[in-house]
Structures are given as C-alpha cells and as structure tokens.
Specification:
About 45% of the residues are buried. Helix 13 (about 340-355) crosses helix 15 (about 375-385). The protein contains 17 helices and eleven strands. The chain has helices at about 20-25, 45-55, 65-75, 95-105, 185-205, 210-225, 230-240, 245-265, 265-280, 285-300, 300-310, 325-335, 340-355, 360-370, 375-385, 390-395, 400-415, and strands spanning about 5-10, 35-40, 55-60, 80-85, 90-95, 115-125, 130-140, 145-150, 155, 165, 175. It is α/β, with parallel strands linked by helices. The longest helix is centred in the middle third of the chain and has 25 residues, at about 185-205. The strands form two sheets. Strands 1, 2, 3, 4, 5, 6, 7, 10 and 11 form a nine-stranded mixed beta sheet that branches. A two-stranded antiparallel sheet has the order 8-9.
Amino acid sequence: METPLLAAALIVKNEEKFLPDCLASLNALRPLLSEICIYDTGSTDRTIEIAEAAGARVERGYWDQDFSRARNAAIAMCHAKWVLIIDADERIVADRDRLEISLKDSLRLNMTGADTLVIQIRNMVSAIRMDSQWPSNRVMRHGRIRYDGRLHEQMTLIPERLRRDVLISDEIVYLKHFGYAGDSVGTQKGERNITVSSLEVDAARDRRDNRQLATALLNRGRSYLLAGDQKSALRDFKEGRGMVKEKNIDRWLGEELAETLIGLGEVEEASLIVGSLRSEGSDLQLCDWFEAQVEWKRGRHERVADLLAKIDNPRGTAQMTLPLAEVIELRFLNAVVLQKSEEAIACGVRLMASYGRGLGHGLLLLALWGNRPLGQLAQLLYEADRGFLRGVAEEMMQYPPQGVEVARSLVAIAQAAGAELSVKAISHQSGASFGLKSLATE
C-alpha cells in the first residue's frame, strides 16, 4: 500500500475555543490529507472530545515544559510522506489540487527531494484583518526532521546536513494565525512562554553556551513582551545583545531592543541602536521605521514624513513583515500635524477602509474633508474597501449629521453595486439608526 502524501501533526492543551475551526480547515483538505494526529499535553476541557469527533487520532500525553519533545511525539504518530505542523489557533487555506502537485514535485527535487516546505503565516488580529506575516518551515519530510529547544523549537535534520527548503506561493497555501487576537490570550501565552524560556536561559548559563544563552534571552524577552512586561524584555535584550558574533541572532536582538526602547520612550538610546543596526545590515526600511518613530517622539515631523515616504515593506531579520497599517497610521497623524490635508485624507481613507485600523479616526477624517461633498468621501471609502465597509459605516454613524450622511451614502453605493451592507450603530446624540441586510466580508 502506497504511503499517503500528507498528514497533520498538532500539540494541544485546552484548545476547545480554537480547535474546531482548525480541524474544519484540515478536513477540507481530504482526501489529500490522510490523517490528523494530535498529541494532547493534559487538556481538562472538551479538547479531546472535539478532536475525536472531527476524526483526529489523539494520544493522551503529558506536559514537561518542552515544546520540542511534544512536537516530536505528535510527528511520530503520523504515517505520511509529508507532515504539516499546525497549531490549534491556526487555519490552513489552500488550493488542494495545486498543493498536491507541489508536494509531489518537491519529493523529486534534486533527486532526493526537499526536506521542508516554507509557507507564509498571516497573523490575524480579527477574522479578516492581517497584522503581519512571515515565512515558516511548516511542512516537513517525515523521518528527516526532529525538533530541538524547549521554546520556539528549531528543526534539525537527521542526520545533520544542509537543509533543502522549498518556498510555496501563498496562492497555493498559507496559514492564518489567530492566537494573539485577544489581549488576555496573548498575556496567558506570554506567561507560559516565560516559564519555558527561563528554563532555557538557566540551562544555557549552566553550560556557559553563549550562543544558546543569547537565543534563550531573545525568546524570553519576546515572551515578556507578549505578557506586557516591557522592562523585563528590555533587560533580556540588552544582556543578549553583543553576546555572540552570529549576525542573525544579534541583529534580531538589536531590532527587538530598538522597538522596546521606543515603546518605553527611551528615544536617545533607541537612536543609537538604530544607527548600529543600519551598519550591521538590518533591513533599511525597518531602520527607517524605527527612526521615524524616534523622530515623531522628538517632534521632527518633516523628517518623519521623509522617512515614512520610503517605507512600503519593512522586514525584520526573522523575515517577519511588519504591519504596514502602523506605518500608514503614523503617516496619517504626521500629515495632520503638518497640515497636509490631502495626504492625511488619503492615509485616513486607506487606514479605515483597507485595514480597519483607523476606526476611531472617523471624526478627524470628517474634519479634514471639510465642506466638500460627503458622497465623494463615501465613494473613496468604498473604492478602498478590503472587507471593512461595515465597520467604517458604523464608525461614521457616531458623528451626525455629516457622518450619518457618509454612512447612508456608503449603503447606497454598496446596494447599487449589488452588495448588502448593515449598519447597526445608533448615534447617541441624535438617536438616528437604520438597518439593512448583513454584508459578508470574509
């Protein structure tokens, strides 16, 4: 009997909130996907019941503060040529037929085939809004890879050699990640990760292994940020910075350090770090973004405008694409300060309608628009929409009479185009409200 082409491996604990949607996305890949293998590390909710009802095979395991051990146990359950590594808070989106072709082609690459497939992870802050994205080795050849490291586990080849990776287009497959969409969820994960990464820090200190210690400090610092503790994160990033000559690790520490210093308002020290990052080879657009934030805090708005004009795809050393919406929001606010109303309007429209990020800026956008026809503003918002029209309309409903007119115009434009839009907002000042059919934005 021929070995199946693809299986999925998960480690879970108390994931009844996220797991159903994850499993539904996996089951949509059948029959290409032959099995879903889940290693449970001690769930006390309905996780196991949900998994088994969806057709997954579950092993009741244990948790010992080691993600790699659990991940390897889940992979060992699988019987397929390729194993998809996915978490409960992720959803796979794929063109099944094209994915099957890619899997088969990658088996034949350079005679012996690829070791891993790299796909994009889209970090979602709502059902439809992406915050950032980054590439990740998430599909691996069974039997060729094991994981090492307690936290942010790393792939190691068996036996060790130069790994062969293949990048798969996001037109074929990508993952949506929802795990940090809620502050409380992110805080809980951060606190859990602090415990695990602290064990890595202690072990690296005992071994006097500076490379592992720098990586462990990076991981723990990021965990502190996730838990909302910037000062502890700053301490770890500072200690790790300069500890090793390995450029990727040290640059990543520097980038995290710069961002944390900016968040804490330590702009002079942040500026020095950004200067070092430029000379070390960090992405120039990322350095421009850091410098723009520093100059904004210094009140040098013309310099901010010059820097932001050059940024369209800032990337960190880990190849994470930073949220462009943050850049656009700062451009919007900076243009307002500089009284560049046309640029501010363009950024405000894009921010609200294209990213859903600027909800809360509706009143400012109306003020910038002034006495011009409000139907024209509605048309601009409609043309820039990427799934956020309902939120924009409900935002505008809070600001009568101009905002209500914009909202009504949006509804009329949507209806004329054959779309269905609902506006549930009620203006507390005027009591105005109106209801229409629901708009599906997914």
